[in-house]
Amino acid sequence: MDLIYLLLTLLLTPIIQAGECAANHIIIARASTEQPGPGVIGSLATLITQDFPGTTMESVVYPATLDNYANSSAMGTAAMKKLLTTYVDACPTSKVVLMGYSQGAHVVGDVMCGGGGVQGSATTPPVDAKYGDSVKAMIQMGDPRFVLQKSYNVGTATSDGLFPRQANQTCDKYEEKIQLYCDDGDPFCEKGDTLDVHLGYTKKYNEKARAFVKTKLA
């Protein structure tokens, strides 16, 4: 299974010509158990393409499974890093938006801030500053690596998530680029017991996230 996803990632990594660079580009990591593609958070990406015509988007190819979660999220992190670095190398003046839901939000944070260490998995470094600088906005909904009392947190959560981000994996350097949504009761980003909370972020927060991204791409 790992080899299959690695090969798919390599095959689907776009070869970008200079004339194909968009002013804005969105990379999306779907939630656990969603079908391949952008998943529910793709609705937010669609709103952004309406605000900025010509914006391009692509989805991370990764398992997005709950079984063997640590391996799945690590594969997602590697795949998103590949998409990001390939795009920025080809289109260094483009503005990039990263967004993810649930496990996809975990992937976004691990790409930018360093990751791993979940369920005994190996740690991974963040992307180089060159690539981080090209990312203008990060939207994370229901992130299991949620940590309380961060300036970029949005919502009503009152405790850390299932796999809170470690001190050496802080996203504070990117705090002005991030909005991370987590509400009280979410069983993943807050260890609550209400699944509907976890499933409701796009309906509740899409317009807020849309407005935030607009300020970063304007």
UniProtKB/TrEMBL annotation:
<feature type="signal peptide">
    <location>
        <begin position="1"/>
        <end position="18"/>
    </location>
</feature>
<dbReference type="InterPro" id="IPR029058">
    <property type="entry name" value="AB_hydrolase_fold"/>
</dbReference>
<protein>
    <recommendedName>
        <fullName>Acetylxylan esterase</fullName>
    </recommendedName>
</protein>
<dbReference type="InterPro" id="IPR000675">
    <property type="entry name" value="Cutinase/axe"/>
</dbReference>
<keyword id="KW-0378">Hydrolase</keyword>
<dbReference type="GO" id="GO:0052689">
    <property type="term" value="F:carboxylic ester hydrolase activity"/>
</dbReference>
<keyword id="KW-0732">Signal</keyword>
<keyword id="KW-1015">Disulfide bond</keyword>
<dbReference type="Pfam" id="PF01083">
    <property type="entry name" value="Cutinase"/>
</dbReference>
